[in-house]
Amino acid sequence: MSSDISENTSLYAVVYYEIKKKIELGEYVSGQKLPTERELANMFGVSLITIRRAIQELTDEGFIIKVQGRGTFVEHQKLQRCIDRDFQILGFTTTCQLNGVKASTQILNRGIAGANSKVSRALGVDIKSPTIYLERVCLADNVPIMLEKGWFLPEFDFMKDEELENRSIIKTLASHGVDIDSASDNIIEVGRADAIVSRSLKIGKGEPIFIISSVLNDKSGRKIYLSVEYIAGNRFRLKL
Q1: DSSP class of residue 235?
Q2: Contact status, residue 101 vs residue 79, Cβ threshold 8 Å
Q3: Domains assigned to the chain
Q4: Considering only CA atoms, which of 209, 213, 217 is closest in space to residue 193?
Q5: What is the pLDDT along the chain (240 residues), one digit of tens a residue?
Q6: CB 223 within 8 A of CB 120
Q7: Among 120, 93, 118, which residue's Cα sits nearest to residue 104?
């Protein structure tokens, strides 16, 4: 191996670790645009080839993302959500707390909706029978992570009027004397964002997403709420 190659490798490593360090220390924050390749080359006093190699490595490892025609940006930190030993998936608010970020929600739609076949099977109600429908976007530090669509049994019509912008569903139910015992029928799938998910989460149409379906059960074992979550794949990961 020539001395030039050895030197280039060393310089690439220096650039890689310096940029990575700035991201980890918060000097470059999520969503921030990085200097151009030429500006970075001038900053570090290295060639464009060295910069491009470091940038590619950081991109491959998920620290940054290159957007054609716009530049290179610090990738949003992935929200890590745990599945416990009983295969219970932690709620969004708890997940945000464990990740040290602030959870918030934006209500897109809610009201009365007829049960489709999936809702009918999940909640044990007749097709087209009324349910309480809720659609919202869940954000972590104001970054949209998840589009949630949910259906309650009709007796939970108070959920149509509850303040849910920055409050978890489980805590809201508890305030009405409804204690959630567990989630069941958990299904995790991988799909691609359609136009609605793309617009709601501000991601590209066709980008990979997680789709998580689950049913909340009260203390008596009654199934009261079906949740279907559409989660941006580049902002989220599951931990078993």
Answers
A1: G
A2: yes
A3: 11-74 (1.10.10.10), 79-238 (3.40.1410.10)
A4: 209
A5: 333 334 445 788 999 999 998 887 888 887 889 999 999 999 999 999 999 999 999 988 778 888 888 899 988 777 888 776 555 677 888 888 888 888 999 999 999 999 999 999 999 999 999 999 999 999 998 889 999 999 999 999 999 888 887 788 888 999 999 998 888 888 999 999 999 999 999 888 998 999 999 999 999 999 999 999 999 988 888 877
A6: no
A7: 93
